[in-house]
Amino acid sequence: MAFRISVLALGAVFHLLIPGNTPAADDIEKAAAVKEEDGKHLDAEGNPTFKFENDGTVDWYTFSGYRRYHSDCHVCHGPDGVGSSYAPALATTMKNLDYPNFLAIVAEGRKSVVGGKEVVMPGFGNNKNVYCYLDDIYVYLRARAVGAAPRGRPPKKADKPEGAKAYEASCMGG
Predict the structure, then answer these.
(1) Per-residue confidence (pLDDT) for residue 23, from 0 to 100
(2) Residues 130/28, Cβ–Cβ less than 8 Å
(3) pTM for this entry
(4) % of the chain exceeding 90 in pLDDT
(5) Under 8 Å CB-to-CB from 166, ≥6 apart: which residues?
(6) CA 134-136-138 angle, 5° bins
(7) How many independent structural domains does the chain possess?
């Protein structure tokens, strides 16, 4: 797993070094689901995304992302991704953070200087409770960032797909 995470981080860094390769701001149209694979929705570029039904039902992965975000990420980044005094509002910053860079930052962490103060995002690449659900967390935060998901727990969720059950068992070692 460490090798996979390092490859993801290296790929994200290389992606940013190519001139003109800065990700365009995400929006509701770009995030639209165009393909579905065992309950997991993908956008036109093949990145994980969310799907909400007209009756308010969210796909399993978005719901799972809400739960996982609120178990591990909200302590620093605030409830529903609205930020805190020591971590950015992901419901805003995710608009300009593409999928490869999200994976790299969460897996490897990041240090930066903001207002003369060093801030640190710890790496979660060795935390299975985060790493095994990175796509879920990504789609939840993406839905928040583009305004598709309101604050709070989604009222209805789709059933957990068999593929999600198999992947979870494999990743968690069960």
Answers:
(1) 58
(2) no
(3) 0.84
(4) 71
(5) none
(6) 65
(7) 1
